């Protein structure tokens, strides 16, 4: 039996906030691995700005130096809207012996009751929430709380900075920074 953390996201692009939350969750909950899963179409937000293939490549680059982390293409391969319950049903089927911990930013905790088939999902995972601006705990759904330094980094802010010609160096891992520049993503100059 392994304890697996799942960090689902749009990763448009991945940034240091994602890596720090995953590492703190791994540490605090004694997880064996954390799997990063880029969504094909995120359920509750507008579509991603860059293709799934590029987001997966950036996630692979972001996690490659951490032996506990890996990227999974399970949602990109499935296509359609990436409901977490479908992903977790599939993973539980593939790896019935594993225990899954789904890691989210604290800002999402109060919206958990509205997630697709949340009752079913609650039987498949335990939720882990990390501190983020705007977080409020919803007592309806049990969530393990993981204290992390408050990190004011978001993919949307990174996209805005790139679009307006500002630097995003050190907000993202160097490998991701170079990938964005090389592929001129988000309006970035090379
Ligand atoms: N700085 C952060 N601190 C804590 N949680 C975060 C942080 N950034 C992202 N998360 C969480 O990581 C998960 C995946 O996030 P996502 O890929 O959507 O990035 P994002 O920065 O929230 O994107 P956007 O700004 O485009 O909404 C979500 O659960 C989100 O709440
Ligand atoms: O399944 C749902 O109803 C659902 C609703 C909102 C968010 N999620 C998942 O939560 C993760 C983070 O979402 P996001 O929008 O910040 O990329 C990602 O894996 C989403 O698929 C899932």
From TrEMBL:
Reactions catalysed: nicotinate beta-D-ribonucleotide + ATP + H(+) = deamido-NAD(+) + diphosphate
Ranges of residues in domain Cytidyltransferase-like: 6-161
Any GO MF annotation of the entry: ATP binding
Coiled coil: none
GO biological process, one term: NAD+ biosynthetic process
SUPFAM superfamilies from the UniProt entry: Nucleotidylyl transferase
Pathway annotation: Cofactor biosynthesis; NAD(+) biosynthesis; deamido-NAD(+) from nicotinate D-ribonucleotide: step 1/1
Domain of life assignment: Bacteria
Keywords: ATP-binding, NAD, Nucleotide-binding, Nucleotidyltransferase, Pyridine nucleotide biosynthesis, Transferase
Signal peptide: none
InterPro entries attached to this UniProt entry: Cyt_trans-like, NadD/NMNAT, Rossmann-like_a/b/a_fold
EC top class named in words: transferase
EC number: 2.7.7.18
KW ATP-binding (keyword) present: yes
Similarity-based family: Belongs to the NadD family.
Protein name (record): Probable nicotinate-nucleotide adenylyltransferase
Annotated source species: Halobacillus mangrovi
């Amino acid at each position: 039996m392994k304890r697996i953390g799942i960090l689902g996201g749009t990763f448009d692009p991945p940034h240091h906030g994602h890596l720090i939350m995953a590492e703190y969750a791994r540490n605090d909950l004694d997880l064996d691995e954390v799997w990063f899963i880029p969504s094909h179409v995120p359920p509750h937000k507008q579509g991603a700005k860059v293709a799934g293939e590029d987001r997966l490549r950036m996630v692979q680059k972001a996690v490659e130096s951490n032996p506990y982390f890996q990227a999974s293409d399970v949602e990109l391969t499935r296509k359609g809207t990436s409901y977490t319950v479908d992903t977790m049903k599939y993973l539980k089927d593939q790896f019935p012996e594993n225990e899954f911990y789904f890691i989210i930013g604290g800002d999402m905790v109060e919206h958990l009751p509205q997630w697709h088939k949340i009752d079913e999902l609650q039987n498949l995972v335990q939720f882990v929430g990390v501190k983020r601006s705007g977080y409020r705990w919803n007592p309806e759904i049990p969530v393990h709380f993981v204290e992390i330094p408050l990190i004011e980094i978001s993919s949307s802010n990174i996209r805005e900075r790139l679009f307006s010609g500002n630097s995003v160096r050190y907000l993202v891992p160097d490998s991701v920074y170079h990938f964005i520049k090389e592929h001129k993503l988000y309006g970035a100059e090379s």
